[in-house]
Amino acid sequence: MALIVASIDFGTTFSGWAYSFVHDHDNNPADVKSRNWNSGTFITSKAPTCVLIKSDGTTLEAFGYDAESKYAELAAEENHTDVYFFQTFKMKLFDNEGTIGNSTLLEDETGKKLKALTVFSLTIKYLVDDVMDSLNKQITNGVNKNDINWVLTVPAIWDEHAKQFMRTAAREAGIEMGHLSLALEPEAASIYCRHIKMSREENSTGADISTFQPGTRYLICDAGGKGYASDTLPVGRFDGQSVRIICCKFYGANSNSISRAITVKLKICHHSGDSMCKTLFYHQ
User: Fold this and answer.
1) Which PANTHER family match (predicted)?
2) pTM of the complete model
3) Which of 151, 237, 238, 243 could bond 7 through an S-S bridge, CB–CB 3.0 to 4.6 Å?
């Protein structure tokens, strides 16, 4: 039986991880440990889903904020053409729905191509290794991978081809299939809502903040990097035993649309020769 459950949230724009010891979960399901990521100027609970891969196409140079910073430095010195820099690449699996496979290629920021399986597996491996490093620092004799069950989140809109691709990438990253589960993102969020104190209730002594009571109806909106849910979705009902996702809609407008619009403006400014805009473009 696993002693630890570790989850990797592989997001379109940001990614991160969290884990919980089984005995802690039994006492408090919301008691999870996660990493804070340092951008250099602020701290976030997730890191940008960016990877910098060396020119050999098989070695990860950096992930997250480190990848952004190192790539910006290389670009400023015009030494970035030999390396691979990928960002917001996750939803390529949705764009290539039904055709994704081991030979599928991704284009990096300069148009160079690399196998999608390599990019995804290197990213997952980095996050897995990061979790292991954190656990080994806390546990005196270290931790065995067989003591961990891994959960990898995936969008509910993905088809079976995309989900199987993620399983393959996880296996390439060193996760055994018997220790891997895929979790739909909205269902994971809905289940979490069952265990955190979000409901304010007035009583004779004041007000208490508690978990949702059986019969509570609530809305979850996932405003992600690829799309967002409308205010009609999803409606979950907590009946004390289960959570049901009643409906789900998906739209193309998203936070990345804003980022792309800004990037286009910066590129135009960059090509015009404005030194200030050139700096902004390299660090956008």
Assistant:
1) ALPHA KINASE/ELONGATION FACTOR 2 KINASE, HEAT SHOCK 70 KDA PROTEIN 12A
2) 0.77
3) 151
